[in-house]
Write a structure and sequence with these properties.
By secondary structure, this protein is mostly helical. The chain is about 65% helix and about 0% strand. It is built from 14 helices and four strands. A two-stranded antiparallel ribbon has the order 1-2. Helix 4 packs parallel to helix 11, helix 4 crosses helix 13 and helix 8 packs parallel to helix 10. The longest helix has 28 residues. It is globular.
Length: about 400
């Protein structure tokens, strides 16, 4: 999920569409499930549907504002102070990037029981991908792996944006009808990033985060066409937003998230000329979003109870214990990645090919697993398998990924 500390201007990330945590507990299909279709809905139904929240009003606002502001502030800071770039990347890695990967394992293998149950995805698939990526780096060249990362991470940033937009959409009056979709917003979510990566591919050089890359640069006419398409889609969205504001049906958080998605992709891939600085902005945005959402999911899953299968995770994932949760995850992150760094240097001999093979292999594995676990329905807690600590309901544990 992130590059080793030794690579001066680099880290990485991943992501995927995020399932609305409330859907599982209500027995619903994932709100952004590609199998859902647009359902007709009357303006009267939309008008009377109550507004809800992804979690709480404060959390929804934090998820909307904090990741984008922190990412753009970091980019502005390193632009004004280039000597600080490596330090800021290091902070992004240790506090957000590596934590981002470990967060996935809170849903997959945070205890010996869950790790054993999910061993195919958590262990066997990881080893297979790391071995394949390392072999590719040593045979085809490090540039192949680095170039794949450039585009795969972009795709995951885009997909996470779509997933979170669906979470916000389902809290609006328009999004609470069964099978409801916002096709115009979905176009904005996808078309703008496609134009952004096409533009970046034609303007960046052959180095990215201290790694050699070869971009898939489309012809200028294609980039221009994508730019026009993105402008038209965004303009149509603004026209609709203006109408909704005029009639009083605009939802500030949902519309605000769509706008933030546009802003961060335009800044990260177009307006910020330095590809490394642009990456830093959107990487922080993505990482912090993911960490916040996983924290929310874990607290909603374990609030008011402990789980015999996940004793540590269920105890730290409680309302009012964010510090304990993040400190614990950070400690695990530090131990895992320090050990990984020593393995890369002492066993693999270091070098670009070995480093990229191992770290990118972990990232690619994360992309695949992350795309699966957020789409699984949650299972009911087993009888007698957990014990409430404050009289609260058992809640719903994460979906068991079949081994």
């Amino acid at each position: 999920m992130a590059l080793p500390v030794g690579l001066s201007r680099g880290t990485l990330d991943h992501s995927t569409s995020l399932r609305s945590p409330g859907a599982a507990s209500r027995g619903e299909k994932a709100p952004y499930d590609s199998a859902t279709t647009t359902a007709p809905q009357s303006s009267v139904a939309a008008a009377i549907a109550p507004r809800s929240f992804v979690w709480t009003e404060k959390f929804d606002a934090t998820l909307l504002v904090a990741p984008m502001v922190l990412g753009l502030l970091a980019a502005a800071f390193v632009t004004s102070n280039p000597a600080w770039y490596a330090a800021v990347v290091l902070a992004d890695l240790w506090f957000l990037g590596y934590h981002h990967v470990v967060s996935t394992y809170t849903r997959l293998g945070f205890s010996s029981k869950s790790l054993l149950r999910n061993r195919v995805l958590a262990i066997y698939l990881l080893l297979a991908i790391v071995l394949a990526t390392t072999a590719l780096a040593f045979t085809a060249g490090a540039w192949v792996v680095a170039s794949a990362f450039l585009y795969l991470q972009w795709f995951h940033y885009m997909r996470q944006g779509y997933g979170i937009s669906r979470m916000y959409f389902r809290t609006t009056s328009h999004g609470q009808a069964a099978g409801a979709r916002d096709l115009l917003a979905n176009l904005v979510i996808y078309v703008v990033p496609v134009y952004a990566i096409a533009h970046r591919s034609t303007t960046m050089g052959d180095m990215f985060l201290a790694m050699p890359v070869k971009t898939l640069a489309p012809p200028a006419v294609v980039v221009t066409t994508l730019g026009v398409a993105a402008a038209l889609v965004v303009a149509a969205w603004f026209v609709r937003l203006g109408h909704r504001v005029a009639v009083g049906t605009a939802d500030v958080r949902y519309e605000g998230f769509i706008l933030s998605h546009v802003v961060i992709f335009l800044c990260g891939y177009i307006l910020i000329v330095d590809a490394n600085v642009g990456w830093l902005a959107i990487n922080i945005w993505h990482n912090l979003q993911y960490v916040l959402v996983v924290w929310m999911v874990n607290v909603k899953r374990y609030a008011g109870r402990t789980d015999a299968d996940e004793p540590l995770l269920s105890r730290i994932s409680q309302p009012g214990r964010p510090i304990a949760y993040f400190v614990c995850c950070l400690a695990i992150t530090t131990l895992v990645y320090l050990g990984l760094n020593q393995f890369t240097v002492l066993v693999m001999g270091g070098g670009l090919a070995a480093t990229l093979g191992i770290y990118m292999g972990i990232n690619f594995h994360h992309y695949i697993v992350d795309a699966l676990i957020w789409k699984r329905r949650a299972a009911l807690p087993p009888k007698g398998g957990s014990h409430g600590t404050s009289g609260g309901s058992h809640g719903t544990p994460p979906a068991a990924v079949a081994a």
